[in-house]
Amino acid sequence: MTQTVTYDATLDIPRPEVPTDVVGRPLPEFADPAPLASHGPARIVAMCNQKGGVGKTTTTINLGAALAEYGRRVLLVDFDPQGAASVGLGVNPHDLELSVYNLVMDRDVQLDDVVLPTAIDGLDVVPANIDLSAAEVQLVGEVARESVLARALRPALDDYDVVLVDCQPSLGLLTVNALTAAHGVLIPLECEFFALRGVALLIETIEKVRDRLNPALQIDGILPTMYDSRTLHSREVVARVHEAFGETLLHTVIGRTVKFPDASVAAEPITAYAPSHAGAAAYRQLARELVARGDSA
C-alpha cells in the first residue's frame, strides 16, 4: 500500500490523499464483515492455477483461517493428490481411512464421514492423499464425470458459509470437477513472467466450463502472490495483469516472506502462527475484500 501526500497551499501543511494499491488504484477501506445470524448457503470457491508453486495451497489455508476468524464456517476441500493443504492443517495423509477420493468414488461414503475438524475454530477440512491420483483415470468412464464433486459437496451447502477447493496444478478432470462445482474461481498468480503466460489458457478453460457445464461460474479475482515491491519485475507483472484483466485484479497483494513456509512446517495458518505478521494482515484483508465484493459469505 502506498500513500501520497500533497500540501495545502493556504495552510502549508501536508494533506494525505487516499491510499493506493500497487497499481495506483484508490485502496478502499474494507470493513470487518458483519456477524452472521445463521450459516449457509455456502459459496464454493475453487483455488485454481495450472502452474505449480504459485500459492494456491497457502492461499486456501490462510484465506480459510481468516474467514473463520470473521465468524464464517469454512470447509476446505483438498482436491490435490499431493495433500499439501491437509498436511498444512496438521493432517497426516498416510493415516487416513477415508479421504476425498472415497467421497467422490464411493456413493456410500457421505461428506460427514470424511470431514475432519482442524485446530482453527470454524474451519474443517476434507483431506486428500495420493489415492486421489487414481480418480482421474477411474472417472473417465463415469456418467457425468465432471459433476461428481458437485454431487459430493451438496450436503455442505446448508452447513457452511464458504467452501474452498484447493485444486491440483493442472487443467485435468479433477480441476474441471472443481470448476463445475464452484460458484467462483480465485486465481493466485505468482508475480513472475512465466506464471503470467498461463493465465490466458486458464481463463479459456474457465470459459469452456462456464459454457458447457456451469453457467453460473464466475472469476472472483486474480490474486498477486509472492510480490516483492523492491523488484521492477514484480511491479511490471502486476501492471500487465491490470492492463489485461482490469478490475478482476484484486486490491490485496500477498508479499513474499519466509513466514509462509515456516507456518507450513508448523502445520498452522499464518494467522495463528504469526498473527501480527504482515502476511497474516494481508490474508485478513483478502477475506474482507472478498466479502465486500460479495465473493464470500
What this model shows, in words?
Helix content is 36%, strand content 15%. The protein has 297 residues and is α/β, with parallel strands linked by helices. It has a single domain (39-293), classed as Rossmann fold, CATH 3.40.50. The strands form 2 sheets. Strands 5-6-4-7-3-8-9 form a 7-stranded mixed beta sheet, sandwiched between helices. Strands 1-2 form a two-stranded antiparallel ribbon. Strand 5 and strand 6 form a beta hairpin. Helix 1 crosses helix 13. The radius of gyration is 19 Å and the shape is globular. The mean pLDDT is 91.
CATH class: Alpha Beta
Q: Portion of residues in helices?
A: 25-40%
CATH homology superfamily name:
P-loop containing nucleotide triphosphate hydrolases
**Strand order in the largest sheet:** 5-6-4-7-3-8-9
Features:
about 300 residues; alpha/beta; Rossmann fold; seven-stranded mixed β-sheet; two-stranded antiparallel sheet; 13 helices; 9 strands; about 35% helix
